[in-house]
Design goal:
CATH architecture: 3-Layer(aba) Sandwich
Bound molecules: P1-(adenosine-5'-P5-(uridine-5')pentaphosphate, magnesium ion
Number of domains: 1
Number of strands: 5
Strand content: 5-15%
Structural class: alpha/beta
Largest sheet: 5 strands, parallel
Shape: globular
Order of helices and strands: HHEHEHHHEHEHHEH
Number of helices: 10
Distance between the termini: 20 Å
Oligomer: single chain
Strand order of the largest sheet: 2-3-1-4-5
Length: 219
């Protein structure tokens, strides 16, 4: 029907408007789970086989922290070390910019995996305020993994990752933040039937087999 509409109007709308009509609204899958649940690992595998762009909110924040001249660098650094959630004004601007830039380069890249966001009520409100009418949230991929497994994976990675929060002290805080702030957000989406839960405590390939089954069904 959208195509038919375009067919009818294309001869009398300016080409720039045509371009807007042809551009799809971003389609978003939120990817949530505890620290070390395997969100990043699975997102990397998804982009190899499916037409998704992976945006990790944590990676965007770490890049902003490292950017010369960033006004938020110090604040981000403190929040990450403390396992606290950065105010959404910062994160949402980074996410919006990344989505816009991706689609400006190639309008066919309208499917996004947003990894590690929204993590709390503030994040959710920020998303609703800024992005609700600009993007569609299809569902939440929830990587469900026990706290001990999560901590051990991050400690193991911490031997070489250089991440300032891959140490036991930060990890305990990250787990608390996850339990207190992020789980309620997952539960909220669950009430709306939007959560696809995967047992993420298994090996990478077993987890990915479940991810594939979900994406093959839901697109
Ligand atoms: N690994 C992965 N899968 C495995 C498996 N199935 N079996 C065995 N090992 C597995 O994996 C972690 C490690 O485990 C790796 O070594 C991997 O090889 C291995 P990874 O895929 O990186 O897990 P992930 O869930 O992505 O873990 P990550 O540490 O990135 O999760 P966090 O959610 O804690 O980190 P993030 O980078 O998203 O956020 C960091 C901080 O940024 C937050 O604590 C917060 O302070 C801040 N932040 C915000 O404030 N707002 C945001 O919106 C986002 C972040
Ligand atoms: Mg990650």
């Amino acid at each position: 029907m959208f195509g038919r509409l375009l067919g009818n109007v294309s001869h009398r709308v300016p080409s720039c408007l045509n371009q807007v009509l042809l551009t799809m609204k971003p389609q978003v899958v939120f990817v949530l789970g505890g620290p070390g649940a395997g969100k990043g690992t699975q997102c990397s595998k998804i982009v190899e086989s499916y037409n998704y762009t992976h945006l990790s909110a944590g990676d965007l924040l770490r890049a902003e922290r490292a950017r010369e001249g960033s006004e938020s660098g110090q604040l981000i650094d403190n929040f990450i070390k403390e396992g606290k959630i950065v105010p959404v004004e910062i994160t949402i601007n980074l996410l919006r910019k990344a989505i816009d830039e991706t689609m400006q380069k190639d309008e066919k890249k309208f499917r996004f995996l947003i990894d590690g966001f929204p993590r709390n009520e503030d994040n959710l409100q920020g998303w609703t305020r800024v992005m609700d009418d600009k993007a569609d949230v299809k569902f939440v991929l929830f990587f469900d993994c026990g706290n001990e497994v999560c901590i051990n994976r991050c400690l193991e990675r911490g031997k070489s990752s250089g991440r300032t929060d891959d140490n036991r002290e930060s990890l305990e805080k990250r787990i608390q933040t996850y339990l207190q702030s992020t789980r309620p957000i997952i539960e909220l989406y669950e009430k709306h039937g939007k959560v696809r839960t995967i047992d993420a405590s298994r090996c990478v390939d077993e987890v990915f087999a479940d991810v594939k089954a979900i994406l093959d069904k839901e697109g």
